[in-house]
Amino acid sequence: MKKIVQLLILCCVLQVSAQQQWELKKSVDQIEIFTRDTPQKPIKEYKAITTVNAPMKAVIHELLTAPAYNDMCESGVSYYLRSPEKDKHLFYAQKSLPWPVRDRDVITLLTVKRISPNKVKLLLESAPAALPEQDNMIRINELMGYWLLEEMDGKTKVTQVMFIDPNGSLPPFVVNALLVKGPLKTFRELRLAVQP
């Protein structure tokens, strides 16, 4: 019995260890993007890392700055909904997809956690009930991740880890194929916005 318990513990440790292995998918413009499998889901999560020549304060400002939400939202633009409490911020975004795939929208709750004077974590989670659903959109219900900002010598190392399940009937291989394109665009835009 004792050997069976030890074997089960070893299997669990090996499974957790295997889940922690990130695979480098792209390294370009000083941006590295990794993916890894997730437990009980065919959709992978991604991690993107870069360093920007700007202080952490400028990066935080950029990540929290967005146009106010309105009824005529553009695809691919993040809109600011409201701050439900101190250090918490709600954002809305939608993505137009080619026919016959239905468009998606997502509401994200961002929580600012200061770890130290030079390190801040911005926790991300879905908040699908913050707005009524639209008939022509599929609401994304599963989103979790974070931004980690670490400042040193006036520069900021930026790490984003994210898992998104787009919901609906999109095949996992299609979703996984897009995991490099999205964060690469986001990180390039972030760098352009904050660097002098």
Element layout with pairings:
Layout: H1 2-19, E1 23-28, E2 31-38, E3 41-52, H2 56-64, E4 79-85, E5 88-95, E6 103-116, E7 119-126, E8 137-139, E9 142-152, E10 155-165, H3 172-177, H4 181-194
Parallel strand pairs: 6-8
Antiparallel strand pairs: 1-2, 2-3, 3-10, 4-5, 5-6, 6-7, 7-9, 9-10
Question: Could you characterize what this model shows?
Answer:
- With 196 residues, the chain is α+β, with helices and mostly antiparallel strands.
- Helices cover 24% and strands 45% of the residues.
- It contains 4 helices and 10 strands; from the N terminus they run αβββαβββββββαα.
- It has helices at 2-19, 56-64, 172-177, 181-194; strands at 23-28, 31-38, 41-52, 79-85, 88-95, 103-116, 119-126, 137-139, 142-152, 155-165.
- The radius of gyration is 19 Å and the shape is globular.
